[in-house]
């Protein structure tokens, strides 16, 4: 990923006179050189950033087409999907590219004799491969913004919007607008769809964290071992976007149907509306309670739903503040039934080692013990992360 502060120092190539454009561009990886300079003896050679259309010579339709082709594909398990089996028409439909745009792009490359990109198929298959060179493309995107900064029609407005989006997509999760993710799991036939609003006002509960994905896979394997003839009350603490709890409930319904399960998704008041939306998206609203549970004031929840304990408690990534260990242990102590099980997954962030140690000490002081522990490794938006899973129960008297 590139640093968004780089945006404040783009070279003013767009302001250069036309006879100097090619000279300036020859020193930048991000902008296409004059297309007559292409060496196309082998049209099967891989393309690079120099093959992108010249902002100064290409028609706006071609620029917009390229920006749409560089748009990331859907996210599956924190990684962008790769489907090499899509046809040209399917790619254009997926990326929102009209025939007008793709035809203008083909004509542009044919006019300048670029045989590597002179058909719809070549353009749709090869251009998206450049999305991996984000740092190189930054200057190309900023050049587009400067060239079209004084927009005058819908297509130029769209170009500015798409160029801005490509920059945001490479500046980290907090720069992104609303998004949807798709998750797939072993031993589970359905995909889980998760909607995430833009991360404003430091609402970290609007993001799906890697720990919930790791825990979801474990829960899906655990569910079949529970007795389907006995009623099970399940509570997810700090659900966030709800992935772990949704995984548990959807797997239960898949193998046991709708009976003998009471599922509670909980979080802070401002997180609950999006949590409820994700429960609805995945078609499990009729089997769920989605409501506020403030760990600093659980009495409101208890008054509303009784003090009956839960057989299963699900918690993922609950520690990102010094006061969280005590709150987590307080909630487990308050809601876990005598023979209940708490499934906890946390990332091993160096910055929070003190809080993790505090959590272990508080569990011990409150007669809770770790029955099973396992180190995991998984993905999050910024790459690989180490995690720790713990199965927690009451100490036997």
TrEMBL record:
GO terms for cellular component: cytosol. It comes from Zygosaccharomyces rouxii (strain ATCC 2623 / CBS 732 / NBRC 1130 / NCYC 568 / NRRL Y-229). Keywords: Transferase. This is ZYRO0G20548p. InterPro entries: Methyltransf_16, SAM-dependent_MTases_sf. The keyword Transferase applies. It holds the Pfam family Methyltransf_16. One of its GO terms (molecular function) is S-adenosylmethionine-dependent methyltransferase activity. Gene3D superfamilies: Vaccinia Virus protein VP39.
């Amino acid at each position: 990923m590139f640093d968004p502060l780089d945006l404040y120092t783009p070279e003013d190539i767009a302001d250069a006179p036309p006879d100097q454009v090619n000279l300036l561009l020859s020193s930048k990886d991000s902008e296409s050189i004059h297309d007559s300079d292409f060496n196309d003896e082998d049209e099967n050679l891989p393309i690079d950033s120099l093959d992108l259309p010249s902002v100064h010579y290409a028609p706006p339709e071609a620029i917009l087409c390229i920006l749409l082709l560089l748009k990331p594909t859907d996210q599956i398990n924190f990684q962008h999907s790769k489907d090499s089996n899509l046809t040209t028409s399917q790619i254009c439909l997926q990326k929102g590219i009209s025939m007008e745009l793709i035809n203008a792009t083909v004509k542009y490359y044919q006019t300048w004799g670029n045989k590597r990109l002179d058909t719809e198929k070549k353009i749709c298959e090869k251009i998206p491969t450049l999305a991996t060179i984000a740092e190189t493309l930054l200057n190309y995107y900023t050049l587009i913004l400067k060239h079209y900064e004084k927009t005058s029609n819908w297509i130029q407005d769209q170009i500015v919007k798409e160029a801005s989006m490509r920059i945001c997509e490479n500046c980290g999760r907090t720069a992104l607008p609303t998004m949807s993710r798709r998750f797939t799991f072993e031993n589970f036939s359905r995909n889980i769809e998760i909607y995430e609003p833009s991360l404003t006002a430091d609402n970290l509960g609007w993001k799906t964290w890697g720990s919930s994905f790791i825990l979801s896979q474990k829960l899906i394997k655990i569910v079949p071992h529970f007795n389907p003839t006995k009623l099970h009350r399940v509570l997810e603490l700090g659900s966030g976007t709800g992935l772990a709890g949704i995984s548990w409930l959807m797997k239960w319904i898949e193998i046991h149907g709708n009976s003998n399960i009471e599922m509670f998704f909980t979080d802070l008041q401002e997180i609950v509306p999006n949590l409820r939306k994700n429960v609805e998206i995945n078609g499990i609203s009729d089997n769920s309670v989605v409501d506020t549970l403030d760990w600093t004031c659980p009495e409101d929840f208890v008054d509303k739903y009784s003090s009956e304990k839960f057989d299963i408690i699900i918690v993922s990534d609950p520690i990102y503040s010094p006061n969280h260990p005590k709150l987590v242990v307080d909630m487990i102590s308050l809601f876990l039934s005598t023979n209940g099980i708490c499934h906890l997954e946390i990332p091993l962030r160096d910055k929070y080692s003190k809080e993790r140690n505090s959590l272990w000490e508080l569990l011990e002081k409150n007669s809770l013990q770790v029955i099973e522990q396992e180190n995991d490794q998984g993905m999050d938006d910024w790459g690989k992360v180490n995690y720790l899973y713990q199965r927690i129960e009451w100490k036997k008297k």
